Amino acid sequence: MTILFDSLKRNAATQPEGVALDDTAGHTVTWAQLLSSVERIAAQLRSDHDPQRPVALRLDHSPETVVLELALLEAGVPVLSLPSFFTEGQSDHALSVCGARAIFAVSPREKAQDCRTAPSPLPYGTARITFTSGSTGSPKGVCLSSGHMLTVAQAVVDALGNEHAGRHLALLPPGILLETVAGLFATLLAGGTYVCPPQAEAGLANPFRPDFGKMLWLVASQSITSLILVPEYLTGLVTAMEETGLRLPKLTLVAVGGAHTSPELIARARALGLPVRQGYGLTECASVVSLEQADSDLPGSVGKPLAHLNVRISDDGEVVIDGPTCLGTVGGEPHPGPLHTGDLGRIDEQGRLWISGRKSNLIVTSFGRNVSPEWVEAVLLQQPGIAQAMVFGDGGPAPQALLVPSHPRADLAAAVAAANASLPAYAQLSAWREVAPFTPMNGMLTGNGRLRRDAIASTWLADGQPDFFTELEAATLRQRMAFLSIPQVQAGLTGQIGLQTYRDYLAQAWHHVRHTVPLMQAARARLLHRPELVAALDDYIEEEDGHDEWILSDIAAAGGDAEAIRRSEPAHATRAMVQHAYECIGNGNPVSFFGMVYVLESVSVALAQRGASAVAERLGLPPKAFTYLTSHGALDQDHMRFFAELVNGLADPADRETIVTMARDMFALFGEVFASISLETLDVAA
Questions:
Q1: Among 28, 129, 386, 471, which lies 20 to 30 A Cα-Cα from 656?
Q2: What is this structure's pTM?
Q3: Residues 6+ apart with CB under 8 A from 88
Q4: Which residues, in sequence order, are CB contacts of 654 under 8 Å at separation 6+?
């Protein structure tokens, strides 16, 4: 029996009707109900699962997920945590390496699926396996015991005090260790309420960009008192508060960690009344190592180490940790002795830890000056136009950077000039390049916001140039961002559209999709001298044939008049988009068609993965009303892999240029199609 289970029993006895879990949609779980459910499900899990074989979880936030997680912990069944942003390949690798016996991936209520992987040796006492997002080699599964995780959770409670045990909102992605230990476990140990809505309800449905306005409103409307954020989320909330004037006086704690947070951002947050405390942690230490004691501390430190740890600085400036660490890695040896973190830092006279960068990331310029890239990145990220930055340039005369703009009109040149003005000459950027976003999905960002520097460098810096597909993503980023900011697109991705809007969307989809095969045939006729492209088009034609009829069937299933749509005329914007495609293919370079493919398929993947399920849930429509979106989205994920291989084989600069031009045009024209649809929004509270 764990100290967490003891806490459940104590709270069930002292406040049986108190709310332990809340999904913000009317579903709450009392302490008495939580204890009963955990006991019942733990007993079932003990009889169903081998305690030497892990069970994998890949579930959205919900009270049911929390109950399952706690029951597995109490039953002594190891849990493999699979964050939602893991690719299929990453998940398969983790399942195989760990020898997971089963996976809960649909719903906590559904029976776990059999994984049929071979058993793998786990260190004795393993309760949780977390795969680190290391920057080199294959990530390893770090094994943690329940006692270690709960020791950290209790240390967090002891450091903060029970007065912060109010309503904690889970915002970090499901499966992230920091949220599990310092959010879920610590909240329940302290007797608070764990608020765990699905990610979409917290403004995180959009796979490209969080809806910080929606996130801010949820925090305010649900009387949230504590949050754990990564710097990107803190930046978004601060900006949303500055723009809207909305304040969050009920918050008593905003812990931020996972990556370096600039003192300027912390100062902005505190100026808005946010009680921000920066922390520092490592997976090997079961997340939290140190945490600021109060929001009045000087911004920049990561606070004092938790009571169960001893932190010291080695002669070369590396942070070294003595105390409980992980059991080891899957199939590896136990972790010996002190943990050498690889982070550079110092401890001040008050005992506070300051992190200055990574030992292995240090840039030594050709002038002999040492520059921490994290320092320069923090200065760059203070510029509103810069969303992400990676600084590099070891051995060169001055640092350089890869930059991601924060909005379609961002002036990166001006942002770099402003950042350089605040840096000493030896640390100023000599050059920069605009690139596509770093995300967990493309392997360039960890789940808690750290840059995977080697992965980024291998894509953007190795051999001079990235592949053409990567360049295409970067060259069309601003057009994609503009497209995604269209209210109708945002509403569709989050499910906030009415039935008539959905039908109108399907009508315009039919009007342009019925031209897909004829456009392909027109391109094929002009590319007969290029057999590799003809073969690709033949595959596309076979795959796409009949998709327009899928849409008419969906319209009928959604209560619309499919035959009336067949007889109708397209909207002006839809006609303009189709005519532009025919003109470019017929009178220009027919390879331009693949720029249209890139836009339509990449957009449909996002709409299918996020929009279809959200709209279906809101409108209560049957699955047969979403055949086009769901089936097309699954197909287009395969298509995008095929597409990347195809265009990467195009060596002619003229072909590449025409694809980029068409893609930029199509993002704008397709955006106008969405903007032309009347937006009938749903009442969010409905």
A1: 386
A2: 0.69
A3: none
A4: 589
How far apart CA 96 and CA 576 sit, in angstroms, is 50
pLDDT exceeds cutoff 60 at 138? no
Residue 452 identity (one-letter amino acid): R
CATH 3.40.50.12780 residue ranges in the chain?
3-356
What is the location of CATH 3.30.300.30 in the chain?
A: 362-466
Please state, in angstroms and rounded to a whole number, the distance separating the CA atoms of residues 394 and 374.
13
Place of tokens 């754990």: 228
Helix (H, G, I), strand (E, B) or coil at 81: strand
Q: What is the DSSP string of 608-654?
A: IIIIIHHHHHHHT--GGGSHHHHHHHHHHHHHHHHHHHHHHT---HH
Measured CA to CA, the distance from residue 378 to residue 384 in angstroms comes to 12
* DSSP symbols for 445-495: B-TTS-B-HHHHHHHHTTTSS--HHHHHHHHTHHHHHHHHTSHHHHHHHHT
Mean pLDDT of the chain: 88
Taking the mean position of all CA atoms in its chain, how far away is CA 143? 23
DSSP at 546: T
pLDDT over 60 (residue 428): yes
Q: How far apart are CA 451 and CA 121, in angstroms?
A: 31
Asked if 213 and 240 count as a contact pair (C-beta separation under 8 A), the reply is yes
39 contacts: CB under 8 Å, gap ≥ 6 = 74
- CATH code, 362-466: 3.30.300.30
Q: In whole angstroms, what is the distance from residue 266 CA to residue 431 CA? A: 28
Q: Report the phi/psi class of residue 245: left, alpha or beta, with left for phi > 0 and alpha for psi in -120 to 50.
A: left
Tell me yes or no: is domain 474-675 CATH 1.20.910.10: yes
Amino acid identity of residue 635, one-letter, is: L
Q: Which of 676, 678, 621 is nearest to 612 (CA)?
A: 621
Q: What is the pLDDT of residues 267-291, one digit of tens each?
A: 899 999 999 999 999 999 999 999 9
Q: Which fold has domain 3-356?
A: Rossmann fold (3.40.50)
Maximum alpha-carbon separation in the chain: 80
Q: Which long-range contacts (CB under 8 A, 24 or more apart) does 460-468 make?
A: 460/402, 460/433, 460/435, 461/392, 461/402, 467/644, 467/648, 468/647, 468/648, 468/650, 468/656
Residue 101 near residue 115 (C-beta atoms within 8 A): yes
- Rounded to an integer, what distance in angstroms lies between the CA atom of residue 646 and that of residue 344? 44
Question: Residue 359 has what DSSP assignment?
Answer: G
Residue 217 has a CB neighbour count (10 Å cut-off) of: 16
Residues of the chain with CATH 1.20.910.10: 474-675
